[in-house]
Amino acid sequence: MRQLIFTAVLLMYSSGAMAEVTDSAESGFTTVHEVLVNAPRARVWQAAVDEIGNWWSDDHTVNGDAGRMTIDSKPQGCFCETFENGGGIVHMEVTFVNPGIILRLTGGLGPLGLMGVSGNMTWEFFDALEGTRVKFTYVVGGYRPGGLQAIALPVDYVIGEALARMQAYVETGDPGKAVVE
User: Model's pTM, two decimal places?
Assistant: First the structure.
């Protein structure tokens, strides 16, 4: 068993990916994902923010069409999803932006928006020799019957999948080629 865990950790770090629920309790949790994208930072920022509808998963939308997802990357901008009938949903609000460097979104992503919780999701972009290192950190706190620690791993998976899909989209043009850690 110990060898299996060591091998999994070794594979995770050798692929350039890092994923972890760094803290989990009844009142909240923190999840961190980091990946190296083989592209310049300006291109990675553009894809992550301006092209989110091309890489976000249809499975993590209300209407089943990620192409309706947008981020208006300015303070009080909307990470939103529009509906065919003219309706829509605010998934999160942009609360900090330094283009090409950092984007902070505040709110409860997905089903967290239906609970008594809120969170800050920070996307950071760093130059690296091999391209761009991207780090997603999501800190969630509040109330949920039974505690929030029970949903930390599923939320962690969704955030990790999103980052992997963005990486695959930038590197191959196909988010479906994502390798989720």
Answer: 0.87
